[in-house]
Amino acid sequence: MSKDYFFKRLYLPLLIGSMIMMVGCGDPIIEIEESNAYHWQKNMSEVEFEKLKNDMSYIEVVETAGGAGKKIKNNEYRWNDEILMTQAYVVKFKGDKLIGKEIIAVKGHSNR
């Protein structure tokens, strides 16, 4: 048997195996955000905010909100409100557990 024959026989299983690995190792946050019908659904609503409970993990909060928050400090993330442009939600974690949440007022940048 020649060396080329060996590599041709090995090529297809390696190709299939690498494709399975790429599909199986996807980013869960991207999958959550892509499951939304509209891009603004990756933000948080007040109803979703009320569902957040202490000791939830970050990924559970992302699943509830429908998207990832913007990291504002070491263990704090912010989600803009889906409807109101004047408020946002800050969620605090210790380790990977939710320890606090608050609604903050957002001031606009008007040039009038």
Describe the structure.
By secondary structure, the protein is of the alpha+beta class. The protein has helices at residues 3-24, 28-34, 46-51, 58-65; strands at 70-73, 76-80, 87-94, 97-105. The mean pLDDT is 83.
Q: Determine the number of helices (DSSP H or I, runs of at least 4 residues).
A: 4
SS-based structural class?
A: alpha+beta
The parts where pLDDT drops under 50 for at least 5 residues are none
What does the radius of gyration come to? 21 Å
> Could you give a short account of the major beta sheet?
4 strands, antiparallel
What form results from the Cα inertia axes?
A: elongated
Helix content: 25-40%
User: In percent, how much strand structure appears in the residues?
Assistant: 15-25%
Distance between the termini: 79 Å
Strand-helix topology:
Blueprint: H1 3-24, H2 28-34, H3 46-51, H4 58-65, E1 70-73, E2 76-80, E3 87-94, E4 97-105
